[in-house]
Fold this protein.
Amino acid sequence: MSVTEDRIFIKKAIRLAAYGAGHVSPNPLVGAIIVKNGRIIGSGYHRKYGGPHAEVNALKSATEPVAGATLYCNLEPCSHTNKQTPPCVPSIIRAGVRRVVVANIDPNPGVNGKGIAALRNAGVQVENGVEEENGRELNRFFFKFVTEKQPYVTIKYAQTIDGFIARSRDRQDWISGNLAQKRVHQLRARYDAVLIGGQTLRADNPQLTVRRTRGRDPLRIILSSSLALDPSHAIFHHHEPGNTWIITTETAGREAMNRLAGLGCRIIPLKTDNTNRVAIGDLLHVLADQKIISLLVEGGQEVISAFLHAGMVDELKIIQAPRLWGSGFRAFPDTFEPSAGMFTLHQTERMESDILLTYRPV
Amino acid sequence: MSVTEDRIFIKKAIRLAAYGAGHVSPNPLVGAIIVKNGRIIGSGYHRKYGGPHAEVNALKSATEPVAGATLYCNLEPCSHTNKQTPPCVPSIIRAGVRRVVVANIDPNPGVNGKGIAALRNAGVQVENGVEEENGRELNRFFFKFVTEKQPYVTIKYAQTIDGFIARSRDRQDWISGNLAQKRVHQLRARYDAVLIGGQTLRADNPQLTVRRTRGRDPLRIILSSSLALDPSHAIFHHHEPGNTWIITTETAGREAMNRLAGLGCRIIPLKTDNTNRVAIGDLLHVLADQKIISLLVEGGQEVISAFLHAGMVDELKIIQAPRLWGSGFRAFPDTFEPSAGMFTLHQTERMESDILLTYRPV
């Protein structure tokens, strides 16, 4: 099999894996393709958390005997047994697969090369690192979580060309067009959780659900030191119990906590830092403990700045609408520290006259 | 000849025409391709103002007899005689061209369909409107100038993600990267004139010349009501005499006018509007009288707003650099009128981590 063919089939496995997005967390996205004599004879992907792995789905789907075939899989097959499903390596060996090609080693300490070693010990030829960057990009939430014990954090907001996110602090204004709004719902469906600050809740009264595309609602998190939240807000009335969390400070009023808990919210009081705010690091630590591997921060000004100042942002997604306002409310306060605002442009995506710009920290 | 083939060859003519950019103003950009039996047997474009037209260059270049061939030309061939070069239509007829395909009718009142009529009268088959939009886009400076008697106006500036063009009003800060800066020089080489305000001259001390790419320097125009311009500025020392114009008010000091004229600048005093400023409409009228068909406005805040408020902007080119500053000096003042800031996104172009966004007014 040539290097080019290996790359083509691994790319196919990666594309297949992506179908699991929004359904497999905290597991990685995995796709598998079985190739024999240059033809694909089986394929599968990890469809949902707790369900069978991609490799097993691919083996099951095979239309002819797998013996002697090559298995393409973006992530190293698992060999560990301390989990819901049986390990994949024995099944691969049993099926008589002759060669396995993977993009990435599974950084999970329980695997981390042991799967590849077990395959090689059984006489299976293994190729590692094919389309490595693409595989890492696909599973960036998972890699961040496993290696740093923190969720992957993406900040998202819509702005005018001149950087305004609303006419004033207390107003909600539709800035972007239809396609861009739909795109935001698609994003939500892929992240484990969505987070906003209390001020954004008061100004926008959002539901933070997935409505304009198919997909599951993310966990909704409100960050509010004061707990001055009006129980009539939409978010408290359009949710399944337990699907809205409120992160607050230990010093917040007991009464407010009880009232919000009574609405079905989970209240998580955290220690405050020296500015009497929740420290972003502590917040992310709590989310990681709850196996939240990806977080979409949707505003507002104070929350976005806090994440950037803490150096805990992996991606900045800005939807820029084709308008100049001259004045209004900006995404960042005057006190924002420019040294926290150095990026590279990772990707651009046009949506009618809006553009989605994806930046990553330098 | 099929419709598809007609479009392919007209597109080639358009690409060829574009080589004349920066050299033929106030003439249009024109390219011509001669096709016989499906093969290109000649091609040419209008290379410089005063030089032979594209059609003539194409006929001269033909590698075999043109009789019976099709001539593709993005603009209607000229039939008028009140100009430097002889009209093209007689040459085309004489050469025995059987068919002529054009993208656009020449809106110039001296032509405006007369070229096509003359060809048809001589028995030449003519097809008009093939790739019409592309042809109009290519010659947007020329079409604006001929139909509205005003130059095509493009505003260009570089900003941070959050809309700042400098750290403060009096500072110049490099915002964009190498490729973007080179791109600005390419733009300058294509516009007849570049304009800045006195404040930008004082803060940036620019040369406004073409240095980082090949091309001729544009005419440089400074808009200054006060004429409070320091003679030591670079712009007064790196120019050919007459290549720097200063547009000012009739009420500006006579002494300052004489001093700047002594530096080789051309001083153009205009009447003031009710805010004691030069009216943008008057300014553009003067430029059009001088056969300036395209103007690149490079700042700053006051000048850019004045053009947008006057509704006299055809294009907004923003180079957005991957930085957040939180505070600084913005491209627009608080007094900017949002109704003057509605656009569609026309084009995007990535340059490393910068992005050039081209907007056009709605």
Observations:
- The mean pLDDT of chain A is 94.
- DSSP finds eleven helices and 16 strands in chain A.
- Chain A touches chain B through 40 residues (CB under 8 Å).
